[in-house]
Write a structure and sequence with these properties.
heterodimer, A: mainly alpha, 67% helix, 0% strand, B: GMP Synthetase, Chain A, domain 3, 2 domains, 4-stranded mixed beta sheet, 3-stranded mixed beta sheet, 7 strands, 22% strand, elongated
Chain lengths: 252, 167
């Protein structure tokens, strides 16, 4: 596999996960439980979409076909998207969204920390920039997990249920294939096996403080590497891409 | 307007006239968004800029304003380059700008206090209220009206205020 091809796919994974997570969070606009939380969730969404733009514009450059970040975001179908399954799951209730944001932010936090050491300077600059933002996301969602988990009987039940429901999508975060192997060998990519223990300890620390039970690692639903998704991705894309699909090339 | 002898000091002055669209009391230079420039010849200049936050919607306004200003000053071609490394930090905001922020009602970031703790270390411990100066302030939310600000409230004068958070 060519370096260009591997790096392009790697950047799509990062960009797509950020884009879809950001798009999902944006659904909270005007629906947040309090005004401050509404603003917080959409601020996080904005950070994620900003990160997606950086990753996808670099991806477009690496691909070298004269495309833009917008072309990549708006004109690929679901079987060409490489986001993690976790990011595309529906928002559910507030606890569901927080559980998802927390697990995802914990992953990105450790991922960007490691990617900051990449030999690809553009990738490492992007990672270190994003790390600063993701640190806030992780802290914000982690604090909510504790507040709700160690809160009332009702909030605890909902928080625990949220983790139980999405746990089977966490295995997908750590899947690797030859793209990873090639890039790890060149000092560009991150070995996700090395991230597991850091991710586990961050997650366990928060779950313990939240008096929640860590769900068991049983069946894990995967598919990201082959762009095989849950039924939900197509629906998000139909909304995200509607305008450009209906009026290709439309500009403000 | 045509200027015969364009030099770096002059270009910095021009750039320093461009206000932040959200916080008009400080300029794009004072904020640390303009990282540098290179005058190629009398008609062409390269400018490097860096985003405060990846998704900051003000970045597009910065770009348009910088190109407009430099074209007004006689450059025919203004090339913008976005640089991500080193990542922007609130430590780059000039001292003068910190004072201006406080006067404007936004508590300025406490220099060198980037909050590196992973969990539960929410900002500086004693933040002064920009309205009454009291240190009895409390964090309402890490996320404010823009990506770069947090929401605080003063227990003394009871006024809410914004804090330019450290990254």
């Amino acid at each position: 596999m060519e370096l260009r091809e591997a790096l392009f796919n790697y950047l799509l994974r990062i960009g797509d996960s950020s884009l879809i997570a950001g798009q999902r969070l944006a659904e909270w606009v005007s629906n947040g439980p309090t005004l401050e939380e509404d603003i917080a969730l959409t601020n996080i969404s904005l950070d994620l979409i900003g990160q997606a733009r950086a990753a996808l514009s670099y991806a477009a450059e690496v691909e070298g076909k004269g495309k833009s970040e917008d072309d990549l975001a708006y004109f690929r179908s679901e079987r060409e998207y490489y986001n993690t399954l976790l990011t595309e799951l529906p928002n559910g209730n507030f606890a569901d969204s927080i559980a998802k944001l927390f697990l995802n932010s914990a992953f990105f936090y450790h991922f960007y920390k490691a990617l900051g050491k990449s030999k690809d300077q553009k990738l490492s600059a992007f990672a270190l920039k994003s790390l600063k933002e993701v640190t806030y996301h992780l802290r914000h969602s982690g604090e909510w997990v504790i507040r709700l988990g160690d809160g009332t009987a009702e909030s605890k039940k909902k928080m625990q249920h949220a983790f139980d429901e999405i746990w089977m999508f966490t295995g997908d975060l750590f899947e690797m294939n030859e793209v990873d192997e090639n890039l790890i060998e060149m000092g560009i990519g991150v070995d996700l096996n090395d991230l597991r223990s850091d991710w586990n300890s961050t997650v366990d620390e928060v779950l313990n403080r939240a008096t929640l039970k860590r769900p068991k690692d049983e069946f894990m639903q995967t598919g990201r590497l082959n762009a095989q998704h849950t039924e939900y991705l197509g629906h998000i894309l139909s909304e995200l891409q509607h305008l450009q699909r209906a009026y290709p090339g439309l500009k403000w | 307007m045509k200027v015969k002898n364009i030099n770096d000091t002059l270009v910095w002055e021009w750039l320093n006239e461009i206000p932040d669209p959200e916080i008009p009391v400080i300029s794009v230079v004072e904020l640390g968004v303009v990282r540098g420039f290179r005058i190629l010849n009398k008609d062409e200049i390269n400018v490097s800029i860096t985003p405060t936050y990846s998704g900051c919607p003000a970045m597009n306004v910065f770009e348009v304003d910088i190109v407009k200003k430099l074209k007004e000053k006689g450059f025919k071609k203004v090339n913008l380059e976005t640089v991500l490394s080193p990542a922007w930090t609130t430590d780059w905001i000039s001292d003068l700008a910190l004072t201006k922020l406080e006067k404007y009602g936004i508590a300025p970031p406490v220099k060198g206090s980037e909050d590196k703790g992973l969990l539960f270390q929410s900002g500086p411990k004693s933040l002064s209220c920009p309205k009454c100066g009291s240190k009895e302030t409390v964090l309402i939310s890490q996320f404010g009206s823009t990506a770069c600000k947090a929401l605080y409230s003063c227990n003394h004068c009871k006024e809410p205020f914004e804090y330019f958070k450290c990254i």
